[in-house]
Amino acid sequence: MKYDPNKHHRRSIRLTGYDYSQPGAYFVTLCVQGRECVLGDVVDGHMMLNNAGQRADQFWPAVADHFADVEIDTWVTMPNHVHAIIVIGRGVVSMPNNEEMGGEKGGETTPQHGGGGRGVVSTPNNEETGGEKGGETPPLHGGGGRGGVSPPTLGQIVAYFKYQTTKSINQMRETPGARFWQRNYWEHVIRDETDLNRIRQYIQTNPLRWVDDQLHPDAPPNKFNRG
């Protein structure tokens, strides 16, 4: 649905009273503006990144460098969206290696599509920048960076990623000021380690299930591809 300033107000759609700067793990999904497949393509179950996709994919480590108490646990770049597990508060969740995930079937139920399972809360969320161009508005710096006092919120972390990747991709394309990411993002608050492992596996196997993804260009209408 197209934004109508007379009907929609720029406020975050989020869990009432939830502190998105508190330590924990968060699963986020960011979509390219218009859900255009401009980050690469999936070939034989493997994501083949183009130049724009490489710039987006390679920026996640810089997020952890920018925010002192943030780690990026797992991420994947898909043709028209990215998934990532963002951990606020280093060491607040255990990080088992892939061998310890044996037997999990989390990839069969997609957290992004409302099937995150027990303990996962899903909600569309607006960036906390108030910007209109999916990351073109500079991110907030109210603490949480190196030497900051207060931890960053999830919205600030997402805004930083969007801003920096949009700037880099626009410089490469010579399209200054162009909108690259959709304004909103989807997030899940990960409540326990079972859900954490399930979502990790979903992210890692996402390219294998691209043709069935609800964000695939040929997917039937659903709540993730409307608008």
The strand count comes to 7
User: Under the CATH scheme, which architecture would be assigned?
Assistant: 2-Layer Sandwich
Looking at the structure, what is the overall shape?
globular
Parts with pLDDT < 50 across at least 5 consecutive residues = 1-16, 94-122, 128-146
Name the CATH class.
Alpha Beta
Please describe the topology of this protein.
Layout: E1 24-31, E2 40-43, E3 46-49, H1 51-57, H2 60-66, E4 70-77, E5 81-88, E6 121-126, H3 154-173, E7 184-190, H4 193-204
Antiparallel strand pairs: 1-5, 1-7, 2-3, 4-5, 6-7
Plain-language structure description:
With 227 residues, the protein is an alpha+beta fold. It has 4 helices and 7 strands, in the order E-E-E-H-H-E-E-E-H-E-H. Strands 4-5-1-7-6 form a 5-stranded antiparallel β-sheet, sandwiched between helices. A hairpin with a 3-residue loop joins strand 4 and strand 5. Helix 1 packs antiparallel against helix 3.
